[in-house]
Amino acid sequence: MKEFWKHHKLLVVGFIAACVLTSFLLISLIAGLVYWPKHRDAEMSGWMTIGYVAHSYGVEKEPLADALGVEMEIRRHLTLKSIADAEGIALPTLFEILQTAIDVERADK
Amino acid sequence: MTESLLALVPTYGLPFIFGISVIAAAGVPLSSSLTLLAAGAFIASGELDVAPAFLWALAGAVIGDQIGFQIGLRAGSAIEVRLNRNPSRALKIQRSKRFIGRFGGVGVFLTRWLTPPIGPATNVVCGAGDMRWLRFTVWDFAGEAIWVGLYIGLGYTVRGNIEEVAGTLGDISWFLIAGLVTVVLGYRLLTVFRKHSQKAGK
Fold it and tell me: What would the DSSP string read from start to end of B93-105?
């Protein structure tokens, strides 16, 4: 056994390291899968569009666009960040307006 | 970084999806998986059309893979000339080439969508190992079609936090890669150990 260790140190150490790494990755993967379903609502972010938010919250986009006073047909490719900039309001304020509109839509259903 | 990248998907649309697919497939560590998931979600929300998004992403990925393959091909032959001067190294190169010849096609296919983090490195290795270009390209095309379809499809279906989705998919890939390395090393260890005990038994 000692002889074996002497000649194949690298292989043994490599194998053990790979085992440890694989188990670690498996655990973090399982942890992620357990965590995931609890956080399904996407947090709003500046890169999203009105349509994107509407889609991920399962509501129509027109009421959201109306709440922000945006012409949906012309400005559908605009991100929330650029809408906030154009209207001169802070991004968190815009999120609040959208959230209120979403809550109203959901309550109506 | 991620957010400003994602903001470019609705703003620039298809050219951006194409560009990022090329760059990421060529090996620059940019999250093309997240871009594709976002593209899927933007298709679902009506900002992008499905067929052009799929085709542009696929074209980009295939072109990016060709870049990696060509780099491998050119750099490989230069390095090989030098390494071949040493007979034992020349033997190892021959063995690696045989390995690529046997498993290269399936390897290229699987690394496209099952273990995308090692995809770009695989392209370079296949190029350096003189894999036949047509064979590489056909398997690559098939694999990338699955990868693009899979990620756009997931982005389309999964409502909600796509960064979480991208993270989980990445975790799965890295777990598979580490698992594969463990299996290969374990097998090698077993073979060496058997040989060793046979020798000791004599």
Answer: HHHHHHHHHHHHH
Between chain A and chain B, how many beta carbons pairs sit less than 8 Å apart? Answer: 112
Give the predicted TM-score (pTM) of the model.
0.84
Cβ–Cβ of B167/A28 closer than 8 Å? no
Taking CA atoms, B54 is separated from A18, B39, B81, B148, B152, in Å, by 36, 9, 41, 7, 8
Q: pLDDT tens digits, residue range B63-88?
A: 999 999 999 999 988 887 887 787 77
Per the CB < 8 Å rule, is A76 touching B47? yes
Tokens of A28: 């973090």
The residues near B167 (Cβ < 8 Å, ≥ 6 apart) are: A32
Contact A11 B185 (CB under 8 A): yes
Give ipTM to 2 decimals: 0.75
Beta bridge partners of A49: A79
Of B188, B83, B67, nearest to B120 by C-alpha is B67
Question: Could you tell me if A62 and A32 are in contact, meaning their C-beta atoms sit under 8 angstroms apart?
Answer: no
Residues of chain B contacting A47 with CB distance shorter than 8 Å: 3-7, 9-10
Tell me whether A9 touches chain B (CB under 8 Å): no
